[in-house]
Amino acid sequence: MIRGIRGAITVSADQPDEILLETKKLVTEMAKENRIDPDAVASVIISTTTDISSAFPAKAVRTLENWTYVPVMCTHEMDVPGSLPLCIRVMMHVNTEVAQKEIQHIYLNDAVKLRPDLLKKSQVEAK
User: Fold this and answer.
1) Which stretch is the leader sequence (predicted)?
2) What whole-number distance in Å separates Cα of residue 21 and Cα of residue 40?
């Protein structure tokens, strides 16, 4: 069965090095917390808020060990007034037998504000 695994992270500025580093951090954490084998990943969609345009976050995913052939695509998020700025969102489609309620969605940096209801206890304590 394919499940969607969500994640999001913010950056402090539209700087290529930071975008790539933070995207790598997010995807690595998503994979670790959900015990994801890259061969089980059907695809990854990455969106950024429109204030991020200096780098393709997908490039960071392709540099991860064994992720070279995972299909990854970038797009821009809707530009809604008042939305969280400088945000990178990831939707990973993974073949897994894990129940929907057991999936660990990962929100880092200021992105914890997006879904406080899904934060793990360790994320709440680290805030």
Assistant:
1) none
2) 23
Pick the catalytic residue from 3, 6, 29, 33.
Answer: 6
| 74 annotated active-site | yes
pTM metric for this prediction: 0.90
Q: Which of 35, 69, 102, 115 is catalytic?
A: 115
The domains located in the chain, with CATH, are: 2-126 (3.30.1330.40)
Q: What is the pLDDT of residues 73-119, one digit of tens each?
A: 999 999 999 999 999 999 999 999 999 999 999 999 999 988 878 76
